[in-house]
Structure formats: structure tokens, C-alpha cells
Amino acid sequence: MTRKTLLCCCLLALSVSMNAQDNHGYGGDDGHFKSLAEEVTKLKKSNDMFNVYLNTAASAQVETDNEHEWSTGFKNKHLRLEIKGNLTDKLYYRFCYRMTNSNVARSEDNFARSTDVVMIGYRFSDKLSVEAGKIFQPFGGYEVDENPIYIYEYSDLTGGLECYLGGVVVNYKPVPTQEIVVGVTNAHNDKFADVYGDNSLAIEGDGTQNRILEKTRIPLGYSLGWNGSFLNNRLLTRWSWGIEGEARHKYSRMLILGQKLNLDRLQWYFDYMYQNDGLDRFGLASREVRDFFPAVGGEVWMSDVHYTSFITKLNWQFAPQWNLMLKGMYETASVTKVDRFKDFRKSYGYVGSVEYYPVKSQDFRVFLAYVGRKVTYKDGVGLDKYNTNRIELGFKYRIKAY
Length: 402
Fold this sequence. Notes:
Structural class: mainly beta
Number of strands: 18
Number of helices: 5
Mean pLDDT: 89
CATH superfamily: Porin
Largest sheet: 16 strands, antiparallel, barrel
Strand content: over 45%
CATH architecture: Beta Barrel
Distance between the termini: 19 Å
Low-confidence stretches: 1-28
């Protein structure tokens, strides 16, 4: 066995033992980054059947919590393994494993929370493909589609999405620049009782009525998405609408409209998200106000809850090997039929980061970032406003191992 072959085999074994993962957008354009196997062996890959990525990020952090208590420490942010490839010109696959999540199988789909994606895809033609397994539900928007390693802080709504679900997705491109995506998935990773609890109550109407929650007969989610490209890929869109069966006669509906300006040295997106929960699928409102509705024998869940999110993010490569990232978030929550909790919560988020890429051939960055959050409540709600702050100095490395 030659020295180059031995080095390649050792690197491959190392890559399988570690991590990487990206989202439905599959990590974006990483074709210009060299794999470690190529760097070590000086041999170019001859096919696209097997690709291994390691996503890792860590930082030293100084932060204040909602009690104004300061803390410092070193934290792992991401540890993910991804393997994907095209076995033929029609058959492809993808596997994503998050090493920081539980490996216990969930009660509905029998996948562990650590397993983000286990998917097999088949291209019938350049226009039509089908993917099945544990997949990324075809949400619109750019925050949810971005590789998680690049996210310093999610918006409340995106951070609470149950994105990875068992199901099937059909992708259709009537023309190369436009794609229609239809998905059918489980509504949750867990069974109804594990999500909402036994004998749980739904608060209804003006808050004086309640009823015991019953599971739906068809606990599925349905999504319709449109991904568009205009002006030679300078203007992009990711729009979607979806509905989930939460409980008997209770549904969750979500609209996401994402737009992105994609220039050579500047990328900017704006996402609008609106979630209309007949039963509080997101759960934020229920967690914050359920103490005002004491129940016997089960948890309380709010009905007719609306959430909105406005998210914008700018990346500017202002100098060679340097990037400035700015992000803003504004979100609201409303229990629409209970006057006391109508438009009761507003959340603000602001993130800034300076990133330096010391090695041009690698997706490796050193960063200094600030993350701030502020939450306010309507007068008379009985909840206290708060804010948090965090400063990070660290690195992010999407290793193209093979």
C-alpha cells in the first residue's frame, strides 16, 4: 500500500468518527473548498459518490442571563457528522447526525433526536425528484435553511421549529430557475401523549372555557414551497405554506416568505414568518401563561395563538478573507381570543460578528460576536421584561474531510 493511499484511508476513518451537517439547502456552495483528502494526498476525487463533512464550532463566552447574572466559560456550539453523495446520476443519499443531541429513539418515528436526516432520493429527470426517510420539512425562508453552524442565534420561531421529520418530499422544476416542493411528513417526532401529555386541557374562547385534548386521527403535516431564482441568481426566493394536524379539530398553519439578495461580496436576506396555531404547537405562549390557568390532572395549552417573526441578515465581505455579519429579529406572540394575553409579548434580537478566514482553501473562520436579546410584555400581563447579552470569541470549521 502506498503512503498516499494509507494517508487517505486514515483520514477517511477519522472523518467517519467525527461530525458535520447542513440543512435542506445542503450547506450552500462549498465546491470551491478543498477536501482534506485532496490536500493530504494531492489526488483529485474521481466521483461524487461519497462525501464526508465535519461541522465543529466552539467559543469562549461571557454572558448575562435574564436575572442579570454574569457567567463565563468555554462552550461547544456544534458537533455534527454528514455523509452524502450521488450513487448514480439518479440515486442519491444523505445522512446527518448531531452528536450533541440524545440518541434515544422517539416514540412516533423511531428515529433519535440526534439523527437529523436519513434520506434516499431519486431523480426521475432534471425536473422531477423524490426524497424519502427522515427529511427536512420543506419550509421556506433563509434562516431555517442555513447551515446551523453559521447561526449565532436563532429567532424564537425558527429555533422552536420541529424541522426534521419522517416523510416524503417531491421536487419539481418546470424550468431550471424555479422549483415547486410538496411534502407530507409526520406532525411530530413523538406520539401525541408525549408531546402534549395525558389529560391535557386546551384553553379556548375568552379563557373561561377549556376541553380535554384528543389526538387527531391523521397526525400529518403538509407543505407546499416555491424556490425561485431571478436576475442571474442575484435575487432568490424561498416561500412556503404548511399545515399540521395537532389534535382533534386543532391545526397549526405556517406561512414563510424569504427573499435574498445574492451579490458577489454582499448577501442579504429578509424572512417573514407567520404561524397560526389552533393549538399552540410552538408552545412559547403556553409555557409563559399557563400558570394563570391552573389545571387538575394535566398541562394547559393555549388555543388560537398567533406568532410573527421578521428576520434580516447581512453578510458583507468587506476585505479579502474578512466578513461582517449583522442580524436583526423582531417577533410577537398573541393569544388572540384572551384579552389579557392578546399581543402580550414582543421580542427583539440583534447579532453582530466579525469573521476572519485565515486559510483561503478551507471554510474555517475565527470570529468575535455579540448577541443581544430583549423581551417585553404588555402592561397588566403579570410577566417581567428581561434582556440577555453574550460576547463570543471562537471558531467555526466546516471541514470537507473527503
